[in-house]
Write a structure and sequence with these properties.
TIM Barrel, 11 helices, alpha/beta, about 475 residues, seven-stranded mixed β-sheet, single chain, eight-stranded parallel β-barrel, Immunoglobulin-like
């Protein structure tokens, strides 16, 4: 039985870099173009969502020497769950370090390595700027999760002598250096745990390893690994971690550029390699086999992360990029149902990143993506459970701690759109429903219940968050019996 009560709130987040005035509705968008019926239901086998996050390279290397007051302001924009993005997951880049005579890396992408040669001791102060940002983030957020990852081995372990790749984009780690590279990563993880008090829950030795664009003289670190070589470094890293008493540190892979590529890697790994993994990471720039990857991870008992994404395929402006990414989040969360969703760099420029900065004045600016992302990240929090949605037009989640259901809907079109949401197996207790537009002075308006459903009217080019408070999901048998 469905009973609605107090506590249904719909926040309409109009995407803009600045707070816009209330908009007048024209004749062309006054009415929804059509109503989409959406059924939201609880899947008790779905694990809890772990959260949202970002990698730290390259932006943290760029801002790590800022004064405390300015850096703390940036950290709050990233970590504050009420006024910021509420990120709690951070991927720290273990830099390989390039040949010091090379000068081809893009700005801030020249992440220092900790060891300049095979006979040179570790310099644990080499990456002080990125480390400072990591430490501030870990101190700022509640229950942070941190992962270490590598883009390339140190240049002196490579075939080309360059940390950006090999000639022709082929494999670049010297065959005799697999164990040395694994030792390097494990040493860094151990140092951070023992000396810095930061425990990496997982470490990823690969980044887009199937790609052929990692070439010498490129503008960022990268290294191609064949599928067989991926398995070899995963097993070598497992041995290196275990030898240092780091058995609790998991290995993630393969961080392929596409969902389909990640699945192909997983299907090609032998049983020993799969067993050595604790987590499957994929980027979602490309690919469509979300459900197949989700099923593979579930079948093998592996946690699944969407570990990197961004508006690579978007050719519009910042508004277009924000809405493009909002739709990407909807597709990824429904198709893969990952335990976490991370963007590439929270601080960037152009269409990328939620936060833009003026490096001279250190002024911060929220890009349109900040508003689009925060509609999701403030609503779906760590510990919530993603709900099954049919058709997969919106994102929905349930919090047993808050007794709240949230629905996030995206409308990237120029016409109004409406979603009629029905909650299967839901018991809720409410007396009214309201809609709050975050950019129109905090005012609210009533939302009408129509039968057993609530209709969410989404303005053009906007993201809407629906909140149903005082809610709980019940077993279908209980829900059915309550109607009799």
């Amino acid at each position: 039985m469905m009973r609605y009560a107090v506590g249904l709130v719909c926040m309409c987040v109009m995407i803009s870099a600045e707070t816009p005035p209330a908009r007048a509705m024209g004749d062309d968008d006054a009415k929804p173009t059509g109503t989409i019926d959406v059924t939201v239901s609880f899947n008790k086998s779905q694990p809890a969502f772990e959260g949202w996050g970002t990698s730290l390279c390259w932006w943290a290397h760029g801002v790590g020497d800022w004064p405390d007051d300015k850096l703390d302001e940036l950290i709050d924009w990233i970590g504050n769950p009420e006024t910021g993005l509420g990120y709690t997951i951070f991927r720290y880049n273990i830099g390989g370090g390039d040949d010091p005579t090379h000068h081809h890396m893009r700005r801030h992408a020249d992440i220092p390595g900790f060891r300049a040669g095979p006979d040179v001791p570790y310099d644990w102060n080499a990456d002080a700027k990125q480390r400072r940002v990591l430490e501030k983030l870990v101190a700022r957020v509640d229950k942070p999760i941190v992962e270490a990852f590598s883009n390339s081995p140190p240049y002196w372990m490579t075939i080309s002598g360059c940390a950006s790749g090999n000639v022709g984009g082929v494999s670049n780690l010297r065959p005799e250096m697999f164990d040395a590279f694994a030792d390097y990563l494990a040493d860094v993880v151990k140092h951070y745990r023992d000396e810095r008090g930061i425990t990496f829950r997982s470490v990823e030795p690969l980044n887009e390893p199937n790609a052929g664009w990692w070439t010498s003289g490129h503008n960022q670190e990268g290294c191609h690994f064949s599928t067989a070589e991926q398995g070899r470094i995963i097993l070598a890293l497992r041995r290196a971690l275990d030898a240092r008493g780091l058995r609790e540190v998991q290995i993630s892979a393969s961080d392929a550029n596409s969902i389909d590529g990640c699945l192909a890697n997983m299907e090609a790994y032998d049983s020993r390699t799969i067993e050595a993994l604790g987590q499957i990471n994929t980027h979602s720039y490309w690919g469509i086999r979300r459900a197949a990857l989700r099923k593979f991870a579930a079948r093998h008992g592996k946690r699944l992360w969407q570990s990197e994404s961004g508006p690579m395929q978007c050719r519009g402006d910042q508004m277009d990029a924000a809405l493009f990414m909002a739709e990407c989040i909807v597709n990824d969360l429904n198709g893969m149902q990952p335990a976490a969703w991370l963007e590439w760099q929270v601080v960037s420029e152009g269409n990328w990143g939620c936060i833009h900065i003026d490096e001279e004045t250190r002024e911060l600016r929220k890009s349109p993506s900040f508003f689009a992302f925060s509609a999701f990240t403030r609503a779906v929090r760590p510990g919530d459970v993603l709900l099954d949605v049919a058709p997969a037009e919106v994102v929905a989640a349930y919090s047993s701690a808050r007794k709240e259901i949230v629905v996030v809907a995206v409308n990237a079109t120029k016409k109004r759109r409406a979603y009629r949401c029905r909650f299967k197996g839901l018991e809720a207790h409410a007396e009214r429903a309201t809609m709050v537009n975050a950019f129109e002075g905090g005012g609210s308006e009533a939302i009408e219940f129509r039968g057993d459903a609530v209709v969410v009217d989404v303005a053009p080019k906007s993201v809407v968050t629906l909140r149903v408070a005082g809610a709980s999901f019940v077993e279908p048998t209980k829900a059915s019996s309550s109607k009799q």
